[in-house]
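Example record

The entry below shows one chain as it appears in the dataset: sequence first, then structure tokens.
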Amino acid sequence: MRIIAPSFAILDELDRQPLPVRIEYCGRICYKSEDRIDSDSAIPFVKKMATSGHNSVLEMGVVTLIATCATPEPIQALFFRQPKFLQIDRLSDHQLLITGSIRAFREMRLFHPNDGVCQAVARSLSGRHPYFFEPPATPEDAAAPTGVAIDKLELAEVERLAPPLCARHRFLAVKFIVSRAVTHELVRHRPCSFLQESQRYCRYSADKFGNEVTFIKPVFFEEGSEEFTVWRQAMESMEAQYLRLLQTSSPQAARTVLPNSCKTEIIVYANLAEWKHIFALRTSPAAEPSMREVMIPLAQELERRYPAVFP
């Protein structure tokens, strides 16, 4: 049995990596298979996610585009249509700023087959990143009316945005190492994307987990107190029962005895506007103490990095 303190890491270094590399890193958190990452593993991994329909993994890659059209009508039509899960701001009559995950752009192509600009954007993006758009478009997709010639629509990928646009279009991933109790609350923030370590597949009796279950030290009990001793004895008992069940059962069956104090890793991906909303709720005196334990220092760090967004 191992006891650790909760922690977080802002994954801003991933922004400097290609999209497939970012997505593979986040996706492998679920199965704790980071040891399989090498210089050639990203493209096969994201292709597999795309073809198997593991769309939640594809939410971990976000693209921001400036779409410029020769005529204003298609731009206006796309702006007022507001396809699901895309952040769209109007820069001018001829330009839109569009931000979305790879999943959002894939679904835009699927759910708006007769919309010219939607199809043109999706086709252009699939030309830049074909591995995300497998299986390839059907003949019916290829024959769908475009409404606007692709050579009249220019797309430029954007790396950095200044305030105030960056609040909605700048996405940031944070990896938390916390208890299951904390993640139960984190996933209630619906606009975010999440990937979490899977107790269904992780076998904690394996060597890479140290042949033990790891627990998060509770903020509620002082180490050495009677309450902490009771908690520790309970965790030792739970670990023994779990390891015993693994001798005859699968991890998904054995996990039924694991408690909320189990350590888990979760990546939370959201734009800065949503992080601001999260901090308003999760750093207040009324928030759950274990949540405040990680959210207050995270909020302070993002205030330092983005003072215009987090005054």
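Notes for this example: Confidence is low (pLDDT under 50) at residues 136-151. The chain has 13 helices and ten strands.
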